[in-house]
Design goal:
oxidoreductase; Sc_DH/Rdtase_CS; single chain; 9 strands; about 260 residues; SDR_fam; NAD(P)-bd_dom_sf; NAD(P)-dependent dehydrogenase (Short-subunit alcohol dehydrogenase family)
């Protein structure tokens, strides 16, 4: 499939960080892009900068996602590409003890459900909606109709203390990738997942401002190169996964060879 002005894409979480870098990379190729994001101010600004379309979308809400796809398709036509970057976490150990009183504090199950709802269910919801639309397209000479990229995390494989909800959510995204690739194979739709390591996204850049020593330590913990990953490096891999017609059903770490310690 050619990535040019005849093609359309949707990027969830596209207002900042990994998603914003992916929006720019796709727009640089001429692809028509719709940004799905909850942050209207940042999303509108990024859309204006890149020539993309902003759609105010909450991936945890069915009606909101439906409205986003309807708006994007009315403007750009049916998308051939979907990149899922929307996500987030709420930290906490499975059970913890109060340092002063010794009181046992269980992890809030509602928070666990929220993290899975945002990351795993939100990703799957957008996959289902987008794939159903892609299946209506005419296939190219290879029989291809579309391609999808998901965002997991290295936490899917080596989650740290206090990351139980986030690690579970990202591991679920990893686990469903091959199954979805098989489900969609007869429709000519590919899907792959990226597991980023420590990336220079806005939350991590905030650490650099608040606690430069911690930021420096995190950078040095990466075997090589000894720095945080650039969002543009994520975007480059996402575009490769979308463009390479034989790239399917894979989960790939993008992490400078880091393996996260327990803490």
């Amino acid at each position: 499939m050619k990535m040019d002005s005849n093609a359309a894409a949707v990027v969830t979480g596209g207002a900042s960080g990994l998603g914003a870098a992916t929006v720019k990379a796709l727009r640089d190729l001429g692809v028509k892009v719709a940004i799905f994001d909850m942050n209207a101010e940042t999303g509108e600004k990024k859309a204006a900068e890149t020539g993309a379309l902003f759609c105010h979308v909450n991936v945890m809400d069915e009606a909101s996602v439906d409205a986003g796809f309807a708006k994007a398709r009315a403007a750009h036509g049916q998308e051939r590409y979907l990149v899922n970057c929307a996500g987030g976490g709420r930290g906490g150990k499975t059970i913890a003890r109060d340092k002063q009183t010794g009181e046992i504090k269980p992890f809030n199950v509602a928070d666990f459900e929220w993290v899975l709802g945002l990351n795993t269910v939100g990703t799957f919801r957008c996959i289902v909606k987008s794939a159903a639309g892609m299946a209506t397209l005419e296939p190219d000479e290879d029989g291809a109709r579309g391609a999808i990229v998901n965002t997991g995390s290295v936490a899917a494989e080596d989650g740290q203390v206090g990351q139980v909800a986030y690690a579970a959510a990202k591991a679920a995204i990893k686990g469903m990738t091959l199954v979805i690739a098989r489900d969609l194979s007869n429709e000519g739709i590919r899907i792959n997942t990226i597991l980023p390591g420590i990336m220079a996204t806005p939350p991590m850049l905030g650490v650099k401002t608040r606690a430069p020593a911690i930021f420096e330590s995190l950078s040095k913990s990466v075997p090589f190169p000894r720095r945080l990953g650039h969002p543009e490096e994520y975007a480059d891999l996402a575009v490769t996964m979308l463009r390479n017609g034989y790239f399917n059903g894979e989960t790939v770490r993008l992490d400078g060879a880091i393996r996260m310690p327990p803490r």
